[in-house]
Design brief:
binds pantoate, alpha/beta, 14 helices, 5-stranded antiparallel sheet
Length: 434
Amino acid sequence: VTTVYLGLGSNLGDRQAHLERALARLEQVPGCAVRAVSQWRETAPVGGPPQGPYLNGAAHLETTLPAVALLAVLKEIEREAGRDLDAGRNQPRPIDLDILLYGDERIDSLVLQVPHPRLAERAFVREPLLELGVDPSRLQAAVRPALLDDPEAFAARCAAWIRGGCVTGLVPTMGALHEGHASLVRAARAECDRVAVTVFVNPLQFAAGEDFDAYPRTLEADLAILAREGADLVFAPARGAMYPEGASTRVSVGREAEGLESDSRPGHFVGVATVVAKLLHLAQPTLAFFGEKDAQQLAVIRRMVRDLDVRTGIRACPIVRAADGLALSSRNAYLTSADRAAATVLYRALQTARARFAAGERDPARLLAAAGAVLDGEPRCRVDYLELRREADLAPLPPGPIEDARLLVAAHFGEQGRRVVRLLDNLRLGAIEP
Ligand code: PAF
C-alpha cells in the first residue's frame, strides 16, 4: 500500500460538488482509500485565458495501484466530470486531479512527473499538503530545477527521462548566465520535454595565464535564471568529479579548430571537445544547444559529434545582443565603462562589411578592409583576428569572390596594466540575420 497525496482543483460549474464527487468516485475504485482531505481554498488561476477562480485542496490517499494505473483512474474521473482532456494547458476545467507525491518515488516520464514539478512553488498546493502533515523537507526536494553535482546521479536522471519517452535537451554552459544563455534554454524548452543545463567552468579549455581563476562563478544567480526559464535540472559538478585523479584522455580535434581562436588559445578546443563529449555521454540528450557567438566552437562540436557517432542533434542559436549591438558574453562584466562603450565597434565593423556585401561587394579583401577600417578607428580596440570563413563549416575561403561567408572577429579591450578583456563576435554575410 502506497501513501499518495493528490492535488484537486475546479473552476467550472459547482466547484465544491465536482471536488467531492471526484473523491467519492475514488473511494469506489478497488485498492483506493481516501484517508484525509484538506480544506478547500479559493485561488486565482495561473496562466491561460481569462477564467474564474479555482477551488483547490489536497487529499491523502492509500492505494495498491501502481502510479501509472492511478493516473489512468484520475484521467477517467476527470473525463466523467466533463473535462476536455485534449484542451491545452491552463484551460478552465470542472476538475483537475494531480498526483503530487507517490510514496517516496521519483517518476519522471512524459506522462507523469512525481513529485509534481510545481509542487514547491505554488502556495495552493503547498499549504494543503502541509495541512495534511507532509514533511516540509519533501516539498523542498521537489524544487525545480533540481541541482546535482554527481555525474552518476546526473546520468541516471537523464536516463530516466529517456526511458520515460521524453525528448531531452542539454544546454552546456560555464555559468555567469545572461540573456544569451536564457535564449538557449528557451530554445531547448520549445523543442524538448526536459531540459538539463550544465554549469561547469572547464579548466581544460583555459591555458595557463588565462582567466580560469577569475572567471565569474555565480551559481545562485544562475539558478534563479534557470528556474525562471523552466530548466528541469542543473548539473554543476566540482572539478574533481569531471576530471578525477588520473583522467588523461582528450578528444583530438581537426581542421575546424585550425586558426582563429586556436592561434591565440592553442589547446582550447581540445578542452572544449573533451568536456562536451563527456557531458553528451552522461546526458545522452536528443538535442544540445549552443550559441552562434562561439562559431568556431560550434563547428568543432558539429565535427566531433559526426566523427564520434554521437547521436545528439546540435542546434545553433542566434547571437543575443545588447541594444547597442554588443554581443552578450559573460566576459562583458569585466569591461570598464569606457571599454564597454568602445566594444560596440565590433558589431559596427561587422555590419559595415555586411552592408557592403548586401550592396554587391564580393571581393573578400575589400570586405575585410571595410570592416578593418572601422576597427582601426577605435583606439581602445586591439584586433586579434578579422577573418572571413566559409559559412557551411568555417573552412578558409577558396580563392575568388565569396558567396556565403561568415566574418569573425576577436579583439582585446583594456589598457596596459589593467585587466585585458578578449571579446568575440561574428556575422553571416550571406543571409540577413534578424
Ligand atoms: O561555450 C561555453 O560556455 C563552453 O565552451 C562550453 C561549451 C560550455 C564547454 O565548456
